[in-house]
Amino acid sequence: MKIESEKIELPNAWAAVKLGDFVENEKGKKPKNESKTETDSHHIPYVDIQAFEENVIRTWTDGVGCRVCYETDFLMVWDGSRSGLVGKGMNGALGSTLVRIYFPSMVNDYAFYFLQSKYQQINTRAKGVGIPHVNPALLWNYDFPIAPLNEQKCIVAKIEELFSELDKGIEALKTAQAQLKVYRQALLKHAFEGKLTAQWRAENQDKLETADALLKRIQQERAQRYQQQLTDWQTNVKQGSLVQRAGKPKAPKPLPPLTAKELAELPELPEGWVYSYLSDLGDLGRGKSKHRPRNDPRLFGGIYPFVQTGEVKAANRIIRQYSQTLSDFGLQQSKLWPTGTLCITIAANIAETAFLGFDGCFPDSVVGFSAFEKIIAPEYVDFFIQAARTRIEAYAPATAQKNINLETLENLVVPYCSTPEQKMILNILEERFSIIDQLELTIITSLQQSEALRQSILKKAFAGLLVPQDPHDEPASKLLARIKAERTTVAKSATVRQRGRKAEGE
Predict the structure, then answer these.
(1) Contact 91/45 with Cβ under 8 angstroms?
(2) Can you give the pLDDT at residue 424?
(3) Number of structural domains found in the chain
(4) Which of 149, 159, 269, 392 has an alpha carbon within 20 to 30 A of 284's alpha carbon?
């Protein structure tokens, strides 16, 4: 395999070797005997992935059939999605998915940072169809630039100084990111408790309605919507387009009023606000698809967009992309929802929301909501579900695949106010969320730039550009010659011992 290496002109006192010709390495092995607790016989910690990444020891071993690693090593993930990731070593029995790496007569942290600079390349060029693993032909054929020993120490010290400053900056950015999330939720909470519009209400008393008037408008709208649906159904029956009673709309079922106990558990609302059920404010329905969606409309006749749960979560308020489609046959077993339908996920990622940006279908893991727009803005409901997500998730049973049912959303209690106040709430949220979104984007960009800066520091380090060279330092060529001589001596000693054992056996 041909290994592509970036050609860098090294300082005169430096040298370069193939990594595999220089490094000592050993892959880990699963212990024969393990214990979940540390005992006198099982006192060696088993260094698996969790121990490597989180410093959490889960089992101990007696050492039989194990391969040992040390604090003076550093470790590399050999198998799995994070293959090529390196970390500082620890004492214990080496895990089967890890490799211990040691550089003799070297500042090992210098070599550690070199391999850290190669992580992205090693990880993206891993081998294996099922479980990826590090490609040895790539790893061991890297040209490893070796600085004089004293300069290695200076380079490591400078890297750690710069990384420490960089990490402080990253920590501050992540703290700001978390604070923005808290602020976003606080805004939503205050919006639906009437706190964001308290001053507006004081200045616009003439635009407010009483709670009784709001409830009456809801009841009238529900009745009018049902009557219109019934009229449309009857017209279709007369025209012969409906021959069964199965499609007949059902009269709206009045939901029980909230009890005093239920109201006591909810935030107190301002005067003129009222609590109502979500099903009183619009039409709710689960998606469905008995027919398997298809990806290629040219082959399968798929012309109707089919939106999946993940695409609702990934959307930025409006769903504009989809990966699957339904054919005419598939549509007969599903439903085409109109543009602007609010999609609410009820499985896996619960209460994620986004509006359809086109007419489309979705599975029964998504609920569609069409607001009665004369009484409530769809965006108002969208923001409220974002505010109530934690409460909605609490209804999901504690199972591996979390989900809620349609009834949970039908019975979701929504704080409801007059139309002018709804518009004011939306104006305030849109304005402030726009600022939050811009700040979050700035933070994400800064975090990306921080990672790019980290790689730039490493690149300079191993090109001899991070610290000045000292002409009095022993050149790396002498270090390599000494290491080679030491290896030759060790090899000769091993040969003598082996011959001695053979002679004794005779």
Answers:
(1) yes
(2) 97
(3) 3
(4) 269
